[in-house]
Amino acid sequence: MHYYIIYGKTVFSDLEFPQLIKAEPVSEDKADIVIRHAVIPQEIKSRETERKYEFGENISWLINRTVWFLVEKGKYITYEPREGANMGYLRTYLLGYGLAMLHMQRGEMAIHCSAVHCDGEAVLIAGESGSGKSTLTTRFLEAGYGLMADDVSLVKVQDGKAVAYPAFPYQKLCRDAALKRGYRLEELLYIDEEKDKFMVPYFGEFSLEGKPIRRMLCLIADNRIKEPYVKAITGIEKFHFCVNNLFLRKLLQQERYGMLTGPQCLEIASAMDMYIVGRPTQADTAEAIWQMVENI
């Protein structure tokens, strides 16, 4: 068996995850999360022709070309690989969709964002592909911040404060960025065929503890503007930005406003400051954006 820690929780797993931080052995009943290989019930498999996933308070599941997996009671993830499955992809699906579903059952939200920390506080950096999220995250790290998460951070409200929990000490880099930094691609973990990305180890400071969120930055690439800008998000707009940056937002669709996520997102949004960072697409404004972010 393998034992890890992620998002401040202990994991008991029969599947190895090279990117996760190892933990002391723990029994299955004492672990926060249990990941195990077993046969998925036929009643779920047979539904593949009508839909590929389903969310519930106690039972959620997902089916794709790599794996069937079942998430139960905010603790258990059962997976069954398809014949000839790429195990790297399978691990990515379990750590992404699987853990996001599991935490949703616990009332904790997986936010699609990078997270960095400094002086005991976290900054979340959200944005769609191409918005400049990786560039801004790298600028934070160069300025002395520590990495908490590169793609997904777990967020929940504790004692009236929004708190972010770290994932694992790896960054996702596209092929060109990895080559530019001098990495040997054959030594990296290839994780994303669609976006052609690799997992790159992070060797700086990595804390396992949750951090109160100082603010959340939502990057938007906009070809209609000529100058970058930073604008505070207020009122109900904060709720919408939180909901629309859920890791599961594309699968949830309109359900993202439902009882499994809506009240939690409202609570999270009201407990932290949020800003839009607008970036023009036709110019290199990375340094100007960094100066604006520093000013807030």
TrEMBL record:
Domain of life: Bacteria
InterPro entries in alphabetical order: P-loop_NTPase, Sigma_54_int_dom_ATP-bd_1
Gene3D superfamilies recorded: P-loop containing nucleotide triphosphate hydrolases
Name of the protein this chain belongs to: HPr kinase/phosphorylase C-terminal domain-containing protein
Originating species: Waltera intestinalis
Biological classification of the source: Bacteria, Bacillati, Bacillota, Clostridia, Lachnospirales
